[in-house]
Amino acid sequence: MAEIKAEPFAFPVRHDQLALIVIDMQRDFAEPGGFGASLGNDVSRITRIVPDVRRLIQAFRDAGLPVIHTMECHQPDLSDLPPAKRDRGNPVLRIGDEGPMGRILISGEKGTAILPELAPIEGEVVIEKPGKGAFYATRLGEILQQKGVKQLVFAGVTTEVCVQTTMREANDRGYECLLAEEATESYFPQFKAATIAMIRAQGAIVGWTAHVDDILESIADA
């Protein structure tokens, strides 16, 4: 069986069962004036991973492997937004409010869209998720089953929230999960470091982590 150099030990990869999940690379989280910036975050930390995320996406496309994109967003009538979620964060600008790029984290709004550099192409799955985890209230599990996917490579933001939550959900569902270290980021470097340590602790209790170059080398041989 092929392997990808990883921590805490090599990831046993089966390319015919592998997919890439790109978590929430949205304008609201990565661009000035978006929701992330409104919370006082340095969004340049997010945009700096774009080249590595793009490299991963292109490698999976070139190999004919599935690429799945997620977007955290809600219905315009806010029917899928629990008050407990809306009431947290910036008390001045909340989910559903009008922001510089349209209503914040609302389906179809400019700010909710995936960054143009990473935009999905025809045929790629896009999951709109109302929660932090991509399996909650979505068809992701069904889609992965239909595609025969059993192993997942993760990229996107933020490492400690939506990425980690989805990895934990996937782990509980029996998927083998690999986090691409340079293709994920947090507004807080210490949170990213802690999440990587937690994921691969105790013999890959949640999953593995690997460098993008090592993942790309393996995909090139798929």
Automatic annotation (TrEMBL):
Q: Which UniProt keywords apply?
A: Hydrolase
- InterPro entries of this UniProt entry? Isochorismatase-like_dom (IPR000868), Isochorismatase-like_hydrls (IPR050272), Isochorismatase-like_sf (IPR036380)
A GO MF label: hydrolase activity
The Isochorismatase-like domain is annotated at: 19-207
Please name the Pfam families in this protein's record.
Answer: Isochorismatase (PF00857)
Q: Does the keyword Iron apply?
A: no
Q: Which domain of life is it from?
A: Bacteria
Question: What protein does this entry describe?
Answer: Nicotinamidase-related amidase
Q: Which organism is it from?
A: Rhizobium lentis
